[in-house]
Structure formats: C-alpha cells, structure tokens
Specification:
There is one protein chain. This protein has 655 residues and is an alpha+beta fold. The chain contains eleven helices and 29 strands. Among the domains are: 135 residues, Neutral Protease Domain 2 (Neutral Protease, domain 2), CATH 1.10.390.10; 110 residues, Immunoglobulin-like (Sandwich); 52 residues, Type 1 dockerin domain. The strands form seven sheets. It has a seven-stranded mixed β-sheet, with no helix packed on it. Helix 1 crosses helix 3. The two termini are 27 Å apart.
Length: 655
Amino acid sequence: MKKLILLSVAVSFLYSAVFAQNNLQKGEHFCSHKKMNSPNLSMQIDSDSPNSPVHSFDVLDYKIYVDIRSCFISPYPKSFNGNVTVKFRVDSALSSIKLNAVNTSISVSSVSIAGVSFTHSSNILTINLNRTYNPGEVVEVKINYSHKNVSDKAFYASGGHVFTDCEPEGARKWFPCYDKPSDKATLDLTARVKGTVKLGSNGRLADSTVRGDTAYYHWISRDPIATYLMVISAKVNYGLNVTNWPRPSNPSILVPIRFYYNSGESITSIKTKVYNMMTHFSNRYGEYPFEKNGFATLSSQFTWGGMENQTLTSLCKNCWNENIISHELGHQWYGDMISPATWADIWLNEGFATYSEAVWFEYTGGYTSYKNDINNNASYYLSNNPGWAMYNPSWAVTTPSTSTLFNTAITYYKGACVLHMLRYTLGETVFFGFMKSYSEDSLGGFRHNTATTDDVTAKLSSYVGEDMTWFIDQWVKQPNHPVYQNTYSITSAGGGNWTLRFTAKQTQTNSPFHKMPLTVKVSFTSGSDSLIRVMNDVNNQSFDFSFTRQPTALVFDPGNDIVLKTATTTLGTSASLAGDESREGSERYNENTFGADVNRDGYVDAEDVRIVESDVLSFGSGYLDTDVNRDGTVDATDLAIAENIAAINFIVSEP
C-alpha cells in the first residue's frame, strides 16, 4: 500500500539555488533538431499494455538478410539486394496481410513460404497467403526485394560508411515491415559486407566470419524492437572498443558496451561516464534491460546529434557528448524497452529521456544542478510554447509532421518539466518508486512492450494509491499552463495571535484550472520562516493560517517547483476576519499542526502517531520531536494533534 499524496496542508522544506550549469550542448536539443528535420513519416512478450492498438496480426520476428557489400565501394551506391522473413501470429482470420514498403525505395521481386502472390502500390505491400489462417496460428512469409539507388533519408551510403536512421516511419524504406511502434518484434539480421568493414546492429553479435575480402555479420536481438529502432551502423576500418559492465543484481553477468568510432575520435573519457550512467539509471529506473549496450558515431551525413536505436545509439560525428549520451541512454528504458504504443504517446519517450539528463545532472552535480537544468527547460518552454498539448489523440491515427511531433518546447522540455512536477507532487521516494515499478512491470504489459498515456496514468494511480488522472489530464492532455494572480493579507487577531489569509487564483483562458499542491514561505518579525504546503483543488481558494508571532511577508512557490507557470503574489489590505470563517473555499490551519511529522519522512501518518503515543506513555517531557505543540511536555494534546492530522492525510515537513 503506497502512502496517499497530500489532501490538505503541509509545511515543506524546499530549496533551489541556481548555479552555472554544465555548458555542454543539451542532448534534447540535438535529439529534437534531428527528429524535427527527419523526413521519415509515413523472448516474445504476448501481453500488451491495455490500450495498445491491435490489428489483424502480430509480428513476432523479422529475419533479414542484406547484401550491402557494394555500398562500401566507390561510387558507394545505395542499391542492395535482400530478403526478409516475417513471422507473425494471426489475431483475426485472414488470407492476406499488408506491410509497409515505400515504392520509391523498395522493389519486391517475389514472396514465398505462406505467401503465394503480391501487389505493391501506394507504399503498401499486400501478400496473398496460401490459405485462410485462424486466430492463434503462426505464419511465415518470405519477401525477396531490392533497395533502389536513391537517397531516401533512411538508408545512407557514402565514403565507406553505411547506416540506417528510421524514426518515425523510415524502416519501411529499407525493408518491408509493419512499421508502427505498437507492433514490436525480435530481430535476426545478417549482413554481407567488405572484409575491412565492422558492422553493428541491435542485440548480440551471434557470429562474424571473414571469407577472403568479404565478411558476414549475424546479429540477434532476444528482446522485441519497434521497427523505427532497428539499425545498421557500419564503416570501413571502424574503430571498435568493447568494455563490460557487471549487472548490479549479479556482477558475474557482464553486459558488453560496444563503442564504434571514427578515426581521430577519443572515447577515453566517455567510457567511464557511460559505465556510471548505466549504474545510476539502473538504480533509479530498474536494472539495464538489454543484453548489450552500444554507441556508434556516424558520418557527416548524420548531423542531428543522437538517435536511441535499441542497444546501439547513433551519434553524430565526434559527438561523444555527455549530455547527448545521458539523454539517449535514458531512452533505453523509456522509448526502447517501453515504446510508445502510438505517436500520440511520444512524450513518454522524449519527456522521460530529457528528464534523464536532469537525473544525470543531479548525480554529477547535486540537486542544484538538477534543478537548474529543469529551470532552463521551463524557461525555454515558456518562451517558445506553440500552444498545443503534449498528447493529441489524432496523432495515434495520422502521424503529424516531424516539426510538430518532435517540437522541442512541448515534447521534450514540457515533458521533462511535467515529470519534475510529478516528483514534487508525490515526493522523491514515491516518484522514483513509480519510475522503477513502471519500467519493471511485465504483467501490466509495459516491460519490453508498449504503453499508451492512459495506461501509464492507470499504472501511476495504482502505484500511488490515488487516482492521478487529474494530474495527467491537466499537464499532458491540455495545452499551456496556469497563470497565477495570488493575494494575501495579514491580520492581528489580538493577544499576540495573527492570521494570514492566502488566496490562490488562476486567470488563464487558454487552459483549464490546474489542481496542484502549493508551497508558500511565510516570514516573521522574529524566528525562522515557515514553509507551508496546501492542496489547491479549486480556483480562487483561500487558506487562513494562524500564528503566535507576527507574519511580515509570503512568497509563493519559493522553490519554483511548479515550473510551468507565470505568477504574481501581492499583499492586500489587512482587515478583520471576524465572522468570515464560513467563506466558501476558505481553509483554516493552526501553526501548531506544522510540527507533527515527527519522524521527518514527509508524511503525518500512523507511524508518527505511534511514536508520539510511545512517548506519552513512557515520558513526560524532553522529547522535542514528539512535543508537537512545543509546550515542553509530550502529552495527550500532542497525541491528539498527530492523530487528527494523520486521519486527514497531511504531508508535513520542516527545515
């Protein structure tokens, strides 16, 4: 059972100092620039996440053979011959299947095994089968084809360098496939190349042989892959360095990390960082999910930074950049292991990977470095927001332009900021617990599978123990962000008592009201500041705080944790509040409640009650933490305060 998130008031110690951030180019800039300019539109896990799209068959495996030897020889043609055997399970009775194959790139010559004839037009390959197959049957068709000598921005060949680059829908340009991210399949790829070529692909290297001046590489991926993440990276005289990373769960199991690099590039520094990244992300997200990791710098034709191909990330020439690599490595969990069920769910890729950059900053430079990165993301979004939501259900049907799908401000930066605000809402322990539970969830259909936004929302709600639809709906499915125009007033209640009324008001007209926990910092004429956290669940909501010392000022969101907002907070006219206790939307809180989180775990709950009760029974005084009302004695009054707060699920913490 997970602790509920706050329902009422809290006092929270939050701080954020902005230091100079690492001046390396940010990985999401490279990634977004690449993908926005991409022309590429257009053990088998059987359990899909609940809302993943289904069609009449489910591809289980692609067995590809490509003879690309001539592509490494001047004049470096892009033409090659190949074949692919597609193994699929029938989901509804069928006598033909339709695959994606772009006519301007691919010419099909024949089909065999269960395929008896075909038509190929309008970029659709229709294969007629030798009979009608029933649900549950497993079928194979083999397709012989050739790739034309064309530049199609998916298959590249120049100067002894050959590579593929497919997101979002470019795989259909170099092999016939069902080219949608919802249908993942294992891959068995054999390539014929020149003897001086090194070639990398997904999964593990099963075999490589050299026969005279010709080499054969055989790669097998045991884990299913979305077609846009299937890759070839190859070069004459490629540099190759292989190191091994021991799995934290069993250090005797070594995961190879393969670094393919161009002449003159140095990988010495990045090797240690990748090693540490894999360990840190494994601690945060669950153990690295694949049998291999790898990176390959490509030719000058790949100018966009990085692409997170499963187990073999593509990088631009000499781009051994820590920020790019932390972004692309984060994708191995979020995007590769768990792929988007539709392109409407792309924020689950790019938002999570961009957030991974901040997670790495936190590891290398502390929370200040993390928060500075998040603040920079938020500033970019606020300055460049195009005004649409991260999630658009129509994108599940019609893939939008890459400039829309991979918009930097929305898909990358807003996505990362939303995850930060989720961390703020849930607390660090619950947030990272969810991240790990999500990535490790096989029964729910996520691990080595796909996810929709609604599936992730349901998973989040289940993990937290509270319906979190409100959070995802307002931040992911709605455009824009809240605009706060808050006010507060300070009033003497006599006898040394003071009341501060804070009113939270949102005024945006291009987005609905955003429910959020709010933190305010109250300063006084004497003593330390108090940080108070309340749940703002209706607009124009007022909160009355009672103090036994005189407040002087209030600061809204002092840690800037609701990073996607604009806000003003002004001091209004002080006035008597007598007779106004029944004001609609007003909540009243006493300063004495602010110390009841006696074990300092961020929650006032049954454990705090137990600790106070123990001290009440055993001791009369001297226990500062459990002396909730600070009267010098731990007694029934302190117990009553703790029980009352725990009963309504406060979250309280103090500096």
